[in-house]
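User: Second chain of the day. Same drill as before.
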Amino acid sequence: MKQRNRRVSWEVACSLGLLCSAVIFLRVQHIPSQERQKTPAKAPNLILEEYHPKSMLVTEYHVPPKPKFPAIDVHNHLGYAGGKRMVDPTLCIREMDAAGVAQVVNLDGMWGETLKATITKFEKAYPGRFLTYARVDWSKIDDPDFGQMAAAQLEADVRAGAHGLKIDKAAIGLTRKYKNGRVAPVDDPRFDPIWAKCGELKIPIEVHVGDPAAFFTPLDKDNERYEELQDHPEWLFYPGFPPLETILGQFMHVVAKHPDTIFIGAHMGCYAENLQWVAQQLDKYPNFYIDVDARISELGRQPYTARKIIIQYQDRVMFGTDTPPNAEAFRVYWQFLETEDEYFDVSKSHHYQGRWMVTALNLPTEVLEKIYYRNAMKLIPGAKVTF
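Assistant: Same format as last time:
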């Protein structure tokens, strides 16, 4: 009897076990897979160039087709006659007209006969639409009378139609060396005749010395322009190059030494990452001006400071792009300078510079008018707009 009871009990237990298992199985079938998963799925391994997050912010986005006023682009590179990188002026005009740009300054005029041919190619073919700057032949830097000869050539170039002088980072201060191996400093006294001649001729000097601050730091995990420098390793000036602060100090020494000459500090005074420093130089030197070209990616990361400084020094700031005329690129500047848009990409204005977005400045109308054309008309011979 006891054995039979045990057998019945065992059979009942088995039946109850099977019933419970069936119930549990049916319940599990109705639980979503994400709830059944006890451990979260591991994120895929991505290399840095594959990671391009899409913002989930819902914000306003405005792209003005044209600026509030006709604009003069005071910083552009269109190449020179006979050069491999010369831009077709016909295409430039098409893009300028589409975006509301009245004039473009071509900083690549060179000197002598090349300058004359470049002026013919651009200015004479399209009167009033282009302004050409001369350059210095730095290959003769070791000649004992280099400064005087360069100043004499510049005077001839201005007679031929040059509207200003362009100094770039490859010319002096960073990479160019004398025969003895020493880097040619920006403030070498032998260059003084050049700066003085510009003051005498009343033409501005567009100066680009240095580069983004990150280019002067190690290329490691802390470098905010790591990806840009991966694409352009030749832009890294560390180690073995003069520090950025040294080069900028030399530049401002020249500005102080030649108060009758107008100097335009390209790329927001050559130090867009440190607007307090830029403001200090503007306070010290009334002959120092700046343009915003190719640095709205920096200004848009510090919109309150950038807006404050641009408004404060509105008579000393000019519009420029450093990008061959392209209507879409121009319009990024209109968006940045004129709207209230937040957290948007400006890489189309120049090229990819860093993994960040920007906030627009919404500058007052009277400030925009000065930046777009009035300040340029004050400084650059031949600068004008037609309404």
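Residues 1-8, 18-26 have pLDDT under 50 and may be disordered.

User: Great, on to the next one.
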